[in-house]
Fold RING finger protein 32 isoform X3.
Amino acid sequence: MLQRKGHSSKQDNLAVTAVALQDHILHDLQLRNLSIADPSKTKAQQRDTRSKSLKRNTKAVVDTGLKTTVQGPKVEDPEKEYVLDPKPPPLTLAQKLGLFEPPPLPLSSEEWEKVKQRSITQGDSTQPCPICKEEFELRPQACLQAFEKFANKKTCPLCRKNQYQTRVIHDGARLFKVKCATRIQASWRGHVVRKWYRDLRRTVPPTDAKLRRKFFEGKFTEISRRILCSYNTNIEELFSEIDHCLATNRSVLQQLEDRCGHELTDRDWEKIQIRALHRETHECPICLTPLPTSGDCRQDPVEMLCGQPSREMVLLSCSHVFHHTCLLALEEFSLGDSSPFHACPLCRSCYQKKILEC
């Protein structure tokens, strides 16, 4: 009788141990919601659980007729650090029986700070993600959750430790901001330097002979292009302007020929001489020496022996009187002028001349 009881107790202990191990394995593999014996029972349990949660979350609403103030969503600190699993998982039957070690207790704030400092010292945040091999960015990255879902268990992808604790930190995002700011500054500085160098290349000629020649050829081409662009290339307008200038020159030359081209008669010279007498000019406007009066036109024998020129007077058609020699010297001095007619040194009009007899 006693043997049967001892044998049955051993069988019960084996059965309890087997159930505990099976429960622990299912819990470790995150499969405790599955039913190995009856798959349909699992679906029914899921429906019952869903309906119970809906009933539990349902609340009665009473309309009092008063306006309720709608509170806006609370703005949380985007860089706030938090623990994903703050509560330890419940103990399995195998852990309660001592067949497996219980999960470690949640880390305190001081312990998390030490873990964070060790991670900063190792430079883990500066390295890419060990799972996706990409940099940590500002957007959410669920690589660890995807790895846990794919592996169907909670195991560290680096050290393979089970039942680890997870805390969300933002060191990678801060370093990514610094990297982005550094890249933006480097791009802007590069743009400024390249712009300065282009301006320098456009303004300062190089020292090399070939490059210097190419530089000035480019400058000459640019200046020529600007000059051509500034000109009015209307050929018809250019030809019409040339025709107008030619017509104006012809009219001026015709007027000049009308005034100076015809010969003056003796009567005209008498009138001009009368106007010259009314001027009462006693000095030559060129040499500023006295003009000879009547009876003084003959040259002195001493002057003839010394080679001095004669002091004959000449009357111009503009009624001005000069020494003949002075006017001849002035005309000889003015031979370089492009005008075919000489101009009076006083009134600047073309003239005809007549030598006065004393």
